[in-house]
Amino acid sequence: MTSTVETVSTMAEAARAVAQGATFLAGGTIVMRDVNAGEAAPRIVRTIDPSLNDIRISGDSVVLGAGVTMAQVLANRDLEFLHPAARMIGGPQVRNMGTVGGNLFAPHPYGDFAVALLALGARAVMAGQSGGRPLDDLMRDRSRSPALVAAIECPRPRAGSFGFLKVSRVKPKGVSVLSVAALLPREGGRIRGPRVAWGAMGPGPMRGASAERLLDGQELSAATIDRVVQAAAEGLSPPTDAIATDWYRREVAGVHLKRLLEQMERG
């Protein structure tokens, strides 16, 4: 199939094109694969709007333009809490091109950066719309959403309250057997409002409700961790693919969640 690529000046113009069925081209790490395979949409649109590359940091809040690359994240010291996830996205060439916004729509088993953002409680700012949309909602609807993500609003976690782990068979840039991220805010030594997110454990990044329920209100102790890992895979629906079976992913989910939580316990 032959595709045409249009370049527009603003996000508003790009959003209108996407609403009419066009495919948006950012870094190209996903779309160009379809182009090379002859499977891309007939109309592709890109924009030179500079806002796509903005990084704004104010207090405990970070706003990342959807076109910010993994390499840009890694180059920014104020985004150090996101470095473990960004570093796990492909090799240098992919990190130089792959974008924050594009990773939200990466198909299984990709999208590890989106897992980190989901655990952090980030929100997606859609082009032409005011206010942010919770990533929880976007992850559920991403396959049928015609809207265009303009930016990501992300809170900066307190030191020691956030962790990320990716498991792959090929080092250092293999695709995920699974990935897991956890945000564990604490008050008086107890966890309040935890968020756990998984990658490659469902059709897209998803929350680990069972783990969150068992962590909430508890101290991060060995006893708590042991209870949590027993329920690690509850409510998840891991697929079988060339990397791992659904059975294997369920079996190792608790092992790797335990490793992450123990790392966070040690600080």
The assigned structural class equals: alpha+beta
Q: Approximately how much beta-strand content do the residues carry? A: 15-25%
The proportion of residues forming helix, as a percent range, comes to: 25-40%
Rough shape?
Answer: globular
Mean pLDDT: 93
CATH architecture of the largest domain: 2-Layer Sandwich
SSE string, helix = H, strand = E?
EHEHEEEHHHHHEEHEEEEEEEHHH
Low-confidence runs (pLDDT<50, min 5 residues)? none
Number of helices: 11
Radius of gyration: 18 Å
Number of E-state strands: 14
From the N-terminal CA to the C-terminal CA, the straight-line distance is 52 Å
Strand order of the largest sheet: 4-5-8-6-7
Question: So what's the CATH class of the largest domain?
Answer: Alpha Beta
Overall number of structural domains: 3
CATH topology of the largest domain: Uridine Diphospho-n-acetylenolpyruvylglucosamine Reductase, domain 3
Kindly describe this structure.
- With 267 residues, the protein is an alpha+beta fold.
- The protein folds into three domains: 44 residues, no CATH class; 105 residues, Uridine Diphospho-n-acetylenolpyruvylglucosamine Reductase, domain 3 (2-Layer Sandwich), CATH 3.30.465.10; 105 residues, CO dehydrogenase flavoprotein, C-terminal domain (Enolase-like, domain 1, 2-Layer Sandwich), CATH 3.30.390.
- Helices cover 33% and strands 23% of the residues.
- It contains eleven helices and 14 strands.
- The strands form four sheets. A five-stranded antiparallel sheet has the order 4-5-8-6-7. Strands 9-10-13-14 form a four-stranded antiparallel sheet, sandwiched between helices.
- Helix 9 packs antiparallel against helix 10 and helix 10 packs antiparallel against helix 11.
- The termini are far apart.
- The model has no long low-confidence stretch (mean pLDDT 93).
